[in-house]
Backbone:
């Protein structure tokens, strides 16, 4: 049986390797491996818990806010801090625009080239392209002149004979189905989205000082001051700029992203039956109301694709296995440990590099295998939207029904590669529409004269109890994220994160249950094994983010090794 | 375009200016771009024509971008670049032959692109490195295509015209190298001592500084002058404190005491909240981020010192810089800065930070008011 390796999986964050066995033109079995390890949680030990958000933010520069959010929530949970409404609303806006911008970049710059053949765009008729675009959207840039200009630029670029980042791809592959006009339209929007994303994310620069890696998070609130009478604080001028940028974000999602998504999906409906995966879904919910704390996106779990039943989520049921991961448990493997008791030491037992294949019967990844109630779970936009849909969340239900209706498919189509990609668009649409609501609430609260942004009472570590533990959750763009912290003598005693891509990129567990990527790949057709475009489609539909998926803790609570002082 | 002309161009290669012209960028816009980037390099405006002249002749040199132990933050920074934009940089100015996060090809086909560039443009291509390189376990802590990061770095950086280490990880090992450095992470220069390396630390690096280095290289055919930590002087030659918009408040003794207090809302000095501006060399206050919208101090959070070597182990975010007996006295801040600047000063600074940590452990008040110590 032919075993193929795709390494590097490109157009993702981090280092991911897929090994797959192919039989009769289909994937018979697959293994997902992360090949990079840093050990940041081990490095965190002994440091100031108030600094943890800055360190964990570096788990990932793509999901550049999400670990900060989970981390400050974990410390706030441990110290029982309630943050002021302004801080909550500012966080909601930061989380919101992060999700929208991240999804658009994923669709156009990381995922689109799996469906869009750029070279075919050269053959398109710009007038027909404009007609196609006009039939699905009234976006003002969709003119024949604009599409012609894009095509000319593309021709000039190809004419140089040096394709740079577009060279040596799977162009012309039989699995590409779009007509030249749709390819040209998508290529034009690829370039437009590149400009758009750097504009709308300026909201992070205003509220967070910069992006990537905004720097205004604080345990207890935010460091961006609020004062309409100051030029050094969040004032009317800055709020109005945010409002304008949020409108720009919503406009692009409604008039470009969603129409493109529906148009492209309509040519690939066969992918609504491919890439289903483990069939278990989990969402932690997100966007707390600043007063009640109620979540706008409801939390919950769905097992075995049964959308008649929504289960509550209990973080106590999360465990991690290392039977196929390069770590060691003190009492041996075969048992999962809850993150509070999470213990592990990195121990590489794979082949010495350079290598051709990993020993997939044994340990083969730096990602652990998290399980919920012993089951592998898929997390991400599909899980979030399914949970909201089943919970009867009004806005989610309307958006899902709209997309399913336009594609002429039923809810079962969501359990697929195409469903995952569509759910991400729905998610972006919902958040793009809701984030301005948080901004209005912020403006109203400031209007009432409330300028508080930080709960100061517990800032000084001397006010803390000798020991405390906290759990910080976040429903990140890529799904359910949890941080667990133990604080002892004002320092980090233990830190653990179970992140979205740990769930999705998980290797097998003690029972041999596959992780979501691995499950989703089984049964996927591969027309040309030397050009496994189909593998990229399904893997990219999860939006992998590997740097944060890998981590390690040490249960012994060893003090931070001191820097040598010369 | 007729075939003859096309063939001729193919033979001669495309200059940046001609590419931009083909893509509908006017000469006027091109010159404007040259002026902006000249300013970013901290060169006098009179140099702009020389930049334009050089770019006229440049023929899309190949660039390969390697990611090792990284978080992709520097790539994201590149996506936010404005002068030039990432589109211009990737499609017009350079031939970005390898970049895992944006390239269309994957697996063997991606690897083939890298090998081709390294072979065909030996000694002529630019290399950018993002992320640290793990030296322990025979390289097993970081592999791409079954090859260790170290092996790839030796091969690719070793044959490059120059390697630009973007971010603090690629420059000095960064977060992965923080104690106890579980994977033996180091920066590029330490992993491949023979390579020509320029460091652009920062977490992440400022994209404007990256594009300025690229244009500098294309214009003058060499790297800009560096400080003792391998950083270009145009971007790291001055302390944040010296260019900080809140400096007058430091000198006047006006400090933020609590997050959200009156002084915080009015934009007073963040020194007491742990700002590391007095010991950090970077152009953040002038270059700012996201097309100059803001930078940390402007958004009410202190500088954390992310572009200094060893910063991860010496810079607790909210603790004050050590060994500063008084506030409002410019000289003290200068002394700290100088100590950090001088190579030997690093040890002094680390020593100071460890003192601060130890004091805290002993129960000494970290936030003692001026004169109490």
Residues:
């Amino acid at each position: 049986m032919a075993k193929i390796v795709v390494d590097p999986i490109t157009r993702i964050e981090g280092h991911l390797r897929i090994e797959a066995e192919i039989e009769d033109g289909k994937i018979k079995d697959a293994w997902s491996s992360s090949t990079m390890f840093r050990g940041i949680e081990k490095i965190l030990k002994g440091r100031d818990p108030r600094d943890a958000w800055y360190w964990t933010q570096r788990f990932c520069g793509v999901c550049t806010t999400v670990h900060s959010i989970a981390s400050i929530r974990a410390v706030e949970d441990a110290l029982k801090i309630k943050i002021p409404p302004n801080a909550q609303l500012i966080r909601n806006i930061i989380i919101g625009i992060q999700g929208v911008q991240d999804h658009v970049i994923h669709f156009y710059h990381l995922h689109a080239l799996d469906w869009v053949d750029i070279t075919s765009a050269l053959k398109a008729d710009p007038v027909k392209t404009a007609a196609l675009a006009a039939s699905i959207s009234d976006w003002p840039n969709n003119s024949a002149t604009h599409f012609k200009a894009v095509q000319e630029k593309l021709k000039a670029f190809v004419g140089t004979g040096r394709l740079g980042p577009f060279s040596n791809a799977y162009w012309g592959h039989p699995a590409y189905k779009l007509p030249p006009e749709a390819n040209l339209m998508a290529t034009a929007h690829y370039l437009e989205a590149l400009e758009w994303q750097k504009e709308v994310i300026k909201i992070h620069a205003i509220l967070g000082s910069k992006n990537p890696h905004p720097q205004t998070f604080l345990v207890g609130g935010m460091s961006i001051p609020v004062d309409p009478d100051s030029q050094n604080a969040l004032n009317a001028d800055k709020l109005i700029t945010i409002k304008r940028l949020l409108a720009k974000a919503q406009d692009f999602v409604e008039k470009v992203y969603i129409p493109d998504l529906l148009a492209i999906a309509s040519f690939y409906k066969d992918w609504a039956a491919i890439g289903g995966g483990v069939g278990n879904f989990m969402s932690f919910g997100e966007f707390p109301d600043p007063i009640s704390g109620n979540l706008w996106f409801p939390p919950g779990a769905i097992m075995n694709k049964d959308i008649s039943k929504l289960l509550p989520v209990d973080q106590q049921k999360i465990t991690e296995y290392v039977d196929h991961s390069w770590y060691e448990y003190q009492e041996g493997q075969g048992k999962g440990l809850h993150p509070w008791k999470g213990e592990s030491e990195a121990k590489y037992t794979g082949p010495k590099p350079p290598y051709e294949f990993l020993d997939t019967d044994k340990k083969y990844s730096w990602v652990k295998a998290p399980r919920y109630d012993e089951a592998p779970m898929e997390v991400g936009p599909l899980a979030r939207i399914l949970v909201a849909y089943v919970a009867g969340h009004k806005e989610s239900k309307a958006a899902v029904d709209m997309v399913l209706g336009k594609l002429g498919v039923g809810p079962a189509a969501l359990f697929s590669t195409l469903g995952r990609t569509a759910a991400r668009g729905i998610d972006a649409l919902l958040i793009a529409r809701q984030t301005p609501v948080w901004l209005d609430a912020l403006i109203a609260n400031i209007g009432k004269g409330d300028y508080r942004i930080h709960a100061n009472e517990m800032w000084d570590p001397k006010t803390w109890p000798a020991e405390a533990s906290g759990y910080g959750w976040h429903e990140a763009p890529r799904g359910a994220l949890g941080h667990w912290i133990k604080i002892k003598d004002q320092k980090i005693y233990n830190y653990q994160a179970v992140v979205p891509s740990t769930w999705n990129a998980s290797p097998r567990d003690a029972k041999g249950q596959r992780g979501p990527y691995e499950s989703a790949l089984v049964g996927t057709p591969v027309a040309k094994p030397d050009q496994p475009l189909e593998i990229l489609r399904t893997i990219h539909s999860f939006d992998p983010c590997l740097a944060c998926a890998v981590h390690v803790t040490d249960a012994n609570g060893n003090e931070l090794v001191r820097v040598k002082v010369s | 375009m007729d075939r003859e002309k096309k063939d001729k161009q193919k033979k001669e290669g495309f200059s940046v200016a001609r590419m931009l012209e083909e893509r509908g960028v006017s000469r006027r816009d091109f010159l404007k771009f040259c002026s902006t980037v000249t300013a970013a390099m901290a060169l006098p405006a009179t140099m702009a024509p020389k930049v334009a002249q050089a770019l006229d002749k440049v023929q899309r040199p190949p660039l390969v971008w390697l990611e090792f132990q990284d978080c992709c933050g520097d790539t994201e920074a590149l996506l936010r670049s404005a002068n030039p934009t990432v589109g211009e940089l990737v499609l017009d100015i350079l031939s970005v032959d390898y970049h895992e996060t944006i390239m269309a090809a994957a697996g063997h086909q991606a690897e083939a692109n890298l090998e081709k560039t390294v072979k065909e443009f030996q000694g002529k291509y630019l290399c950018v490195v993002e992320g640290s390189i793990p030296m322990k376990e025979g390289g097993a802590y970081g592999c791409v295509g079954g090859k260790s990061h170290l092996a790839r770095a030796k091969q690719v950086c070793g044959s490059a015209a120059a390697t630009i280490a973007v971010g603090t990880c690629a420059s000095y090992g960064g977060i992965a190298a923080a104690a106890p450095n579980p994977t033996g992470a180091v920066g590029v220069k330490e992993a491949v001592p023979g390579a020509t390396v320029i460091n652009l630390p920062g977490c992440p690096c400022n994209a404007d500084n990256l594009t300025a280095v690229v244009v500098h290289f294309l214009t003058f055919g060499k790297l800009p002058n560096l400080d003792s930590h391998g950083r270009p002087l145009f971007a790291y030659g001055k302390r944040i404190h010296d260019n900080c918009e809140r400096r007058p408040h430091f000198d006047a003794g006006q400090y933020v005491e609590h997050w959200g207090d009156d002084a915080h809302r009015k934009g007073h000095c963040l020194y007491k909240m742990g700002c590391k501006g007095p010991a950090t060399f970077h152009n953040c206050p002038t270059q700012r981020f996201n097309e100059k919208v803001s930078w940390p101090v402007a958004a009410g959070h202190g500088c954390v010192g992310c572009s200094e070597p060893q910063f991860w182990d010496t810079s607790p975010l909210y603790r004050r810089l050590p060994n500063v007996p008084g506030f409002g006295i410019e000289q003290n801040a200068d002394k700290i800065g100088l100590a950090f600047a001088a190579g030997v000063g690093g040890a002094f600074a680390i020593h100071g930070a460890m003192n601060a940590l130890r004091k805290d452990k002993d129960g000494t008040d970290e936030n003692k008011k001026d004169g109490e110590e």
